[in-house]
Design goal:
Helices cover 39% and strands 18% of the residues. It is built from 4 helices and 5 strands; from the N terminus they run βββαβαβαα.
Length: 146
């Protein structure tokens, strides 16, 4: 059965696909340059998506919320907006691109840092270097004559 436009699937990130119905777009008049077009056309796009509706690992969802910061409401809704372009379609694409960036960064598991200690040889080399510098600087000091 062919898919209708209202139920099409959008790939947000590699391996992350959502139904178009999960993404809620609204359009308002934009601010900034554009002459009278700004007052007449609703070109500014606002994208709202519930983080719970995104098919990602819970840890990735948490990283996404952290990366988005203030753009996530207390209800867990991510709000992205764009009014940079004069075209509604371009602003909609800009919102989707920002969502793709955030999700792509969030699904990457950060590398865990392993604690390491300096080796015995590196400690000895560091102390030997400090001692050598100390001697060089000590030799610069003027000594009182006996």
């Amino acid at each position: 059965m062919p898919e209708t436009p209202s139920t099409s699937i959008i790939e947000i990130a590699p391996g992350v696909r959502v139904h178009e119905s999960v993404l809620e777009f609204s359009f308002t008049t934009s601010s900034g340059p554009g002459g009278q077009n700004v007052n007449k056309r609703a070109t500014r796009a606002e994208l709202r998506v519930k983080l719970a509706d995104l098919p990602v690992h819970p840890a990735a969802r948490h990283r996404l919320a952290d990366a988005a910061g203030w753009r996530v409401t207390p209800d867990g809704v991510l709000i992205l907006d764009s009014g940079e372009h004069r075209s509604q379609l371009q602003n909609k694409g800009e919102c989707l691109e920002r969502l793709r960036e955030l999700v792509t960064r969030a699904i990457v598991v950060p590398k865990v840092r392993k604690k390491t200690k300096p080796s015995r040889g590196s400690k000895e080399r560091r102390l030997a270097g400090k001692k050598a510098r100390s001697e060089i600087k000590g030799n610069r000091r003027s000594r009182p004559e006996d």
